Structures are given as C-alpha cells and as structure tokens.
Amino acid sequence: MIIEKTTIKDLVLVTPAVYEDSRGYFFEAYNQVQFNANGLEYPFVQDNQSFSKRGVIRGLHLQINPFAQAKLVRVLEGEILDVAVDLRKKSATYGQHFSVVLSAKNKKQLMVPHGFAHGFSVLSETASVMYKVDQLYHKESERGIRYDDPALAIDWQLDANEIIVSEKDLILPGFNEIDWEF
C-alpha cells in the first residue's frame, strides 16, 4: 500500500498493492496497521455506499465539530472526480481544493481528514462509491457548500448541461457565507 501526500497537508492518496492473476485480483482496501504507521489513526465506525449516474455531483458535504467526519473514499464501479476543500482556517491551504480521479480501474482512495468539505462528480455512465467514516451521521451537524461557488472555482470535468444536483445541494451557501470553522 502506497500512502502519498497531496498538495494539501493531511489529505492523502492511498494506492493499494493489487495482486492479479488469471482468476482476477485481490487487494487490501484498508489496513489499520499501515494507516496508523503513517499517522492516519481513524477509528472507522460506519461504511456508506452510493450509486449515481453520469453527471451527478454530490457535495460539497461535511459535518461540523464535534461530529466532524474523516472519510476514506473509493470507487467500486465506474469513475468519479473526487474533491476535498480545506476548511481549516489556520491552514496555509484554507479555501483551496484538491481533486483526483478515483475509479474501479485505478483502485486509488482519498483519505479526507476532519476539516474538509467533500464531494464528487460521476464521470462514467454510472458509479458506485463507498466510503468509511470515523463518526456516525449526525443530522444537526450536517453542513455544505455550493458545488459551483465561484470562490472555489472547481472544475467538475462535466459539461454544464449534464450536471445533476439534488435540490438540497442547490440551496447550500457559498464558501464566503459559511460561519463555521475547524
């Protein structure tokens, strides 16, 4: 398993060692010992899975303290653009985002720590996404930022006419309107 730093402190990309033969493949998607050895000490308590069609953007979502969630995101089927936005006001990269293509083919995972908003766009015809979290869902702590906020300038790698967003996500505030911090 390769655990790589990204351009944003504490946000890491995980690439598993994949063992393939004529029968198919095997890999460890998560190994607590390897994660802990790399300073990634998250007590995962819940696995979530979603299925979406091309053009869907889910996000940008988060939970505020004390129910903030760290997420280990991977794709079981298809391909997504996974995006994390740094909301830690004391961070040198506050307000910046990182994006990476995660797919069933490349098997990469993004470890999103506390203090980030997270979202993804579906680039393939369909995609199944699974992510581990270290806090249970807490409705009162749920927050978000509009996916198309010009202050963030995220390129979701989709044409505007194919974007599908939930009503709930369309009414989220912009980045400059948020009043919570980590």
Describe this structure in words.
The protein is mostly beta strands and 182 residues long. Helices cover 5% and strands 40% of the residues. The protein contains 2 helices and 13 strands. It has helices spanning 32-37, 167-170, and strands spanning 2-5, 12-15, 19-21, 24-26, 46-53, 57-63, 71-77, 79-86, 97-103, 109-112, 116-122, 126-133, 142-144. The strands form 3 sheets. A 6-stranded antiparallel sheet has the order 1-2-10-7-12-5, with no helix packed on it. Strands 9-8-11-6-13 form a 5-stranded antiparallel sheet, with no helix packed on it. Strands 3-4 form a two-stranded antiparallel sheet. A hairpin with a 6-residue loop joins strand 1 and strand 2. The chain is globular. The protein starts with a strand and ends in a 12-residue tail after the last helix. The mean pLDDT is 96.
Strand tally: 13
How would a textbook summarize the main sheet? 6 strands, antiparallel
| CA gyration radius, whole angstroms | 16 Å
| Beta-strand content | 35-45%
Instruction: Provide the low-confidence segments as ranges.
Output: none
Helix content: under 10%
- Strand order in the largest sheet: 1-2-10-7-12-5
Shape: globular
Structure classification: mainly beta
Note the total helix count: 2
- Looking at how many chains there are and whether they match, the oligomeric state comes to single chain
The pLDDT mean sits at 96
Quick tags:
single chain, 182 residues, 2 helices, globular
